[in-house]
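Minutes, project check-in
Item: structure for the 174-residue chain
Input as provided by the requester:
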Amino acid sequence: MPETSLSFISGDRPPVITQQPASLAVGIGTNASFAVVASSTAPLSYHWQRNQADLADGSPYSGVLADTLTISGAYAAQAGAYRCVVSNTIGSVTSEEATLQVLSPDFNGDGYVDMIDFSHLQLCQGTTKEAGLGSCSDADLNHDDAVNTLDVSKFAGCLNGDSTHFVPGCLTIP
């Protein structure tokens, strides 16, 4: 009799994911969490992956072997596709991928939030996801699928000129 048939006789079942992790967009330097919900008759184990590679607990990741993964102080390096492999003694199942987008008002990546970045925001003003944000998706700082005065307000909370690096987490300013 095959091994899996014996396990079904004992009542154990392979894991089933009942809630997939959701994609997130967070401001640079803020925390992000992904969660997965699974069920089974046998004890479950979890292992999170980023871009299909196993993660290890340690800054910035915690909960790598749990149902909830937390990324502390997310930066561009943590952006990517996250998924969780859920296992038990019978088998394993992999969740759908959830994307982490890390939003930054430093559109040109020079470390400063200045008038050069503001010109990009101005050019994108009035665009929406439906109108094809394309290269303006980074200007949607509050992730509401529109570049508008709400994004300008968020940007203003990060504006610092060309001599001081911007403060991580400044996008949490209303």
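Outcome recorded: The longest strand covers residues 80-87.
No further action items on this chain.
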